[in-house]
Amino acid sequence: MKKLLKSNGAGMLLLMVLVVGFFGALNPTFLRPVNLIQYINNGVVLAFLTFGLAATVISGNFDYSIGSMTGFGTVILALMLRNGVPLSLSLLLGFLILMLFGVLNGFIVGYLRVPGMLGTLGTSSLIYGIALVLTQGQAIGANSDIYKFFGKSDLGTLPFGIPLLAVVFVLSVILFDHTQTGRNWYFVGTSSEVARYTGIDPRRTVMYAHMYSAAMCFCGALVLGSRMASGRADIAEGYVLQAVTAAVFGGISIKGGHGRISGALLGVLIFTLLTSGFTMINLSQYYKQVSTGVLLVLILILRNYRSFLPDAFIGVRRKRTEG
C-alpha cells in the first residue's frame, strides 16, 4: 500500500485526464484527434530537452546549457547546409560538436567538481556566445527541402517528430532502467560517496549523463531548426524553465536519485496540454504564467505531503503496536 501511495505515475495520468477533460468541457474542439496530435507535436522539442535535463538531475546535477546547446545545434546545421555541406555530413558533424559540449559539461561538473548549476551556467554563456559570433546575432536560413522533412513532414497521419520522439523514448527507457549506465545515474544521484565505495566512478557517470543530455539537445535542434528552416542562437532559450517545470510535473526529484523517464514524458504532455488549452481559451500570457506557477507549487506540496504521511503514519502505528 505504501508503495502504491507513493506512485507518481497514476497521479500524473489522473492530472492529464483532468486537464484534457477541463479544456474539452470549455471547448469541445480541444478533444478533436487532429488537435490533440498537434498539441503533442508542439511538445516534441520540449520532451527531448526534458529527457536530457532529467538524466543530469537524476545523477545529482543540473544542465542549464540545454537551451544554448539546442540553439547552437540549429545554427551549426543551418550554416553547414547553407554552405553546401551534404545533409548526412551536416547531421554527423552537428551531433559530434554537441557531444563535445556534453563532454565539456561532464568534465567541468564531474571531474573538476564544479556544482552543476554553476558549471553549466558558464558553458551555457560560452556556447551562446560562440553561436552569436557565428551568426552575428542574425537568423541563418537553411534552404534544404530534405532538412525541412524532420520538422514539417508527416509519416502517415503523424508529424515526423512524434515517431522520432517515440523511438527516442523507448531507447531512453532501456538506457535508464535496463543498463548499468542508467542505474549508475540513480546510485550517484542518491549518494556519490556510497556509489564510489561500490565501485562506481561518479565522475564518469556524470560525464555520461551530460553526454546523453547533449544528444537530446541535438534531437531538439534537429526538429526545431527544421520547423523554423533556420538557426538562431536564442531559438531555444525559453525551453530551459519549461523543461524544469515539466520534469517536476513528471516527478523528477531535484535532489537527485529519483524519477523516471516515463514521468518526464508525462510531465511534458501535461505542460503542453496546459499551455495549448490556455491558448485555446485566449488566456493572457501573464495569467498563463501565474496558473502554471500555482499548479507547480501545488504539485510540489502534494508530493512532499504524500511522501511524508505514510512514513509518519507507519512509524506511529509501529510504536502503538510495540507499546
Indicate the topology.
Blueprint: H1 2-5, H2 9-26, H3 33-42, H4 44-58, H5 66-82, H6 87-111, H7 116-135, E1 140-141, H8 145-152, E2 154-155, E3 158-159, H9 161-178, H10 180-190, H11 192-197, H12 202-228, E4 230-231, H13 239-249, H14 261-280, H15 285-322
Antiparallel strand pairs: 1-4, 2-3
Percent in strands: under 5%
The span between the termini is 24 Å
Strand order of the largest sheet: 1-4
Low-confidence stretches: 1-6, 308-323
Major sheet details:
2 strands, antiparallel
Structural class: mainly alpha
**Shape assignment:** globular
Task: Identify the CATH class.
Answer: Mainly Alpha
Index terms:
single chain, 323 residues, mainly alpha, ABC transporter involved in vitamin B12 uptake, BtuC, two-stranded antiparallel ribbon, 15 helices, 77% helix, globular, disordered N terminus, disordered C terminus
Can you walk me through this structure?
The chain has 323 residues and is an all-alpha fold. The protein has helices spanning 2-5, 9-26, 33-42, 44-58, 66-82, 87-111, 116-135, 145-152, 161-178, 180-190, 192-197, 202-228, 239-249, 261-280, 285-322, and strands at 140-141, 154-155, 158-159, 230-231. Strands 1-4 form a two-stranded antiparallel sheet. Strand 2 and strand 3 (158-159) form a beta hairpin.
Short description:
With 323 residues, the protein is mainly alpha-helical. The chain contains 15 helices and 4 strands.
